[in-house]
Amino acid sequence: MARLAVNVDHVATLRNARGINYPEPIAAAVAAETAGADGIVVHLRGDRRHIKERDVRLLRKIVQSKLILEMAATPEMLGIALDIKPDCVTLVPEKREELTTEGGLDLITHQSPVREAVTTLKNAGIAVCIFIDPDLDQIKMAHKIDADMIEIHTGAFCDATTGDQKTRELSRIVDAAKIGTKLNLEVNAGHGICYNTIKAFAGLHEFSEFSIGHSIVARAILTGMEQAVRDMKQLILAL
């Protein structure tokens, strides 16, 4: 049965839009767990555009399920992770000018620093996931550098505008998940998944966890966080 990890970054985005202290991403995380979330995800960016270090530290004390910290493989972020000790770190690419994460981490190009980050985190008892595109060479490299799991970037599928595009991109994701499973990597999925696109993953039992944020927070504005999480959880349970 696949798990649901809820990303609360966009609660912090709304808070920071006015430079005030609400809405509180900590409260959103508590509501998400109350509604059945299996994990809470936050991305601490170098420019602190939404989640702040203060948020991560408070979440580490409050989250009862699993705290997943998304971050770049930089010395600054490694130091924070080693201090806070989340349950899992997901290594992601990061560009200051991007609106949201635009693609997976290129392990072919950045093999050496990412391998060092993986080793450092695992030696500290922190599980390591790598956010990558559904590319077979990237998945093989994730296995080679000893990652515990991968999160397959599903953005191209979720953003596809034609049936042919969706079919092609979903096929890439499925192939990637099967290779990851054969290599004994835990396989997760995330980016752009909403209440409609999640249904495409029915019967794909290779996936252990779905990381979903924007669509849940968007629905929560209208229905409340607990109901939004319950709605998504039910869809995942039906896969």
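(the above was protein one; protein two follows)
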Amino acid sequence: MNTYLHDFFFTVYPYICLAVFFMGSLARFDRDQYTWKSDSSQMLRAGLLRWGSNLFHVGILFLFFGHSVGMLTPHALYEPFITPAQKQLLAIVAGGVAGFICFIGLSMLLWRRLFDPRIRLTSHRTDIAILIILWVQLTLGLITLPFSLSHADGGVMMILADWAQRIVTFRPLAANLIGLAWPYKVHMVLGMTIFLLFPFSRLVHVWSGFASITYVLRPYQLVRARRLNLPEGHNAPRRVL
């Protein structure tokens, strides 16, 4: 990869994607709240949806939080408990299982969108495009597993974590990534691009998923029955002798 392109993609591009991700999501919520949904096609045909959706969501949530915790946790916090090599092996095994589950579910959803005539007719082009992009991203992630196994000392994981932590602390440094194998770099660039496309696709419903946690904290609703033609006082508490 050209040096200038390398510096752009791993120094400037992350901030462009994050800015569009946050500001674009806010603008869409403010201007087009009626489009803030996932456009479910369950009513047209359930079929593969139940299995595909469950496998995909379980896998993708595990991968998202696994990547977030694994990449953004400072080494000093886990160093007393686990070595970089052990952490990388754990990430390979757990991430590989979750990635395979997610890949199966996403393949089912993509097959359904592409080859079911009823679903294809009602699907937006952006729906199909984002599923294809996610499928390619998952494939690249699975391709990186053999490369990670060949560097079992945890060195690659440390390089990636250092880059990610420098991005979030506004101290970008792309020089350490130059020697990485191409699947890592393409996987990272495509992952950032997904954040860039996030506000313009059905992926915005992810925000609603996180917001649904507030339902656990809200007070219970009081539901009172309204029955007609019943004598007055029928709902009064009875005296127990």
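Reviewer note on protein two: The mean pLDDT is 85.
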